[in-house]
Specification:
alpha+beta, Alpha-Beta Plaits, 4 helices, 7 strands
Length: 135
């Protein structure tokens, strides 16, 4: 008969390697397409959905960071200017760091709460509450 350690080791050998990482949240990557003087982020709505944030808040942040104008067209975002995929993804990572991930426990289980003139990032996992900058 096998002991607990042997059974655990045998079970872990059968688990796929990508499941073992322990990370349940990955910052989504933008699918970027350039069309003339415009850049189209094809999966804009999907990214906002993964972040559990209002599209208008996410849009305001991206447009300010990219210093451009843009509009949402269905599930995609069309911005004026040529931006590489790397630049857009860095801005998305910055948004996640500032407005999605909890500074205490690093989990994405947060929500934005407005109280008076201030906006707070409230973590539903650990209960931490931090003020964030208005956009």
């Amino acid at each position: 008969m096998m002991d607990y350690e042997q059974l655990l080791e045998r079970g872990m050998e059968k688990v796929p390697k990508d499941v073992r990482s322990g990370e349940r949240f990955e910052i989504p990557k933008a699918k970027v397409m350039r069309a003339g003087a415009r850049t189209i982020i094809m999966n804009f709505a999907d990214i906002a959905s993964v972040f559990r944030r209002d599209q208008s808040h996410f849009l305001k942040f991206l447009l300010k960071e990219l210093a451009t104008k843009g509009e949402v067209d269905g599930k995609r975002l069309i911005v004026l200017g040529n931006f590489s995929e790397d630049v857009v993804n860095k801005k998305i990572e910055l948004y996640a760091k500032n407005y999605v991930l909890c500074p205490e426990c690093k989990k994405p289980d947060t929500k934005l709460i407005k109280e008076g003139n201030y906006i707070f990032l409230k973590c539903e996992a650990c209960g931490a509450r931090h003020s964030v900058q208005k956009i």
